Amino acid sequence: MTDTMTKPAPINHWLGGKLTPGTSGRSAKVFNPATGEVQGLVDLASRAEVDTAVAAAVQTARSWRTVPLSRRAEIMFRFRALLDARRDDLARILTSEHGKVHADALGEIARGIENVDFACGIPNLLKGGYSEGASTGVDVYSIQQPLGVVAGITPFNFPAMVPLWMIANALACGNVFILKPSEKDPSASLFIADLLQQAGLPDGVFTVIHGDKEAVDALLEHPDIAAVSFVGSTPIARSIYQKGTEHGKRVQALGGAKNHMLVLPDADVNMAADAAVSAAYGSAGERCMAISVVLAVGDVADGLVDAIASRLPSLKVGPGSDAANEMGPLISREHRDRVAGYIGSAADQGATVVVDGRAQTFDGNGFFLGVSLLDHVTPDMDAYRDEIFGPVLCVVRVPSYEAGLKLINDNEFGNGTAIFTRDGGAARQFQFDCQVGMVGINVPIPVPVAYYSFGGWKASLFGDTHMYGPDGVKFYTRTKVVTSRWPDPAGSRVDLGFPQNR
Ligand code: NAD
């Protein structure tokens, strides 16, 4: 590792509308995964620093909730225009800290902006119901009010999009937001903070506090945080949900995945192979909606494995800053080595290594790994059981639709799945049968558009509401129902009976 000739840049918190150096004395290295160099040192907040940030947020929450809907929408429209204009700059930040190629970073940003589009409609989204004359002289109506101070804890793999899943709706609904981004690629959150300020968001309404477990625990235990949105791995999601709810918070915690693509014998093999390769190796497989298992039904298997394998030699792997490359490095050296370990263990456990990414060599010290294809994988192998989160695609051969469906439904995760077929009846049966939150029919990465909501089932989500879209608005507001009458005081009398609607 070349621990860089130039001094790593400090990456500070964003408090009260400005960059604020940490005081804990603790920091973490931020790497450029394409070179292996340390390019930044991110502050890690102490519990005391989190407490200070929350206290300031509580003060700001009082005024922000009084800002009219029209003004909040206007800020979202301006934020959207700024994000749109600065897509390339933000994408370069993503590439330099995460490693994903520029085109993929632009895709992430586009899907993030969709959530700002949705939040621009907040006056419409927060319209309540009104029942005139629910009883004689009585009207009933509902209003949705913000929760107050809410927090978001986000993963490394989508440093712009996942924060935008949360921020746009939370702020538009009238909440003050504290973001604790991944400490592995924290700079996108500061870029977003700056754009929000330029868009006219009052200082203090959006805070970025960097950190690790210490900061997260402080947020989860703080009595003035009303709700926590989390996206990350399943073990952490489960513990966040438990600790947050124990401390009386509303929590939505999205976890890991193992997404299966079921390919029926009637599928177009070339189309299925194109989809499998795109969805397995895009972003080096570091997507929670990546396809990591292909279930090849019956005699489609041989042709499908050949078609996938034939596409791999031409995939260009290298630094994301070079527009010619299609796949970048993994997030860290440790993660790269862990992913590579699954290729060896699968071979030891009886799988066929059709393409071995470990054989590809790269110049320099970047965290690169070539793409791998494993065939004849069985459900007892580590490569099948664990979320690998890297460019390794497993093919499991199954005799029938029912056998494939059983594997999908027996899996601990239920984030995404896809079926490839030309048979509409089979696809319709699949959408009915599968125990998974997001389903693609001839669509390998079925991330819902922003006016639906995103969420898996089983160990892929802890909580009741999915993220963004209508569920996001529901999560970030509390409903109040008002029963109102304006009677003539002359008719007033005592009545101890339970109020009835007459
Ligand atoms: P991670 O769970 O390691 O980290 C997520 C966040 O939790 C980070 O901000 C991190 O600082 C914090 N964290 C880590 N360890 C913690 C601890 N012990 N206590 C408290 N906080 C802690 O996840 P990651 O490696 O950054 O991201 C990859 C994972 O996220 C994969 O499992 C992927 O499937 C999942 N993911 C899921 C979705 C989804 O929508 N379901 C989306 C993106 C990523």
From TrEMBL:
One of its GO terms (biological process) is L-valine catabolic process. Its EC number is 1.2.1.27. Residues 23-482 form the Aldehyde dehydrogenase domain. One of its GO terms (molecular function) is methylmalonate-semialdehyde dehydrogenase (acylating, NAD) activity. SUPFAM superfamilies: ALDH-like. Keywords: NAD, Oxidoreductase. This is methylmalonate-semialdehyde dehydrogenase (CoA acylating). It comes from Deinococcus indicus.
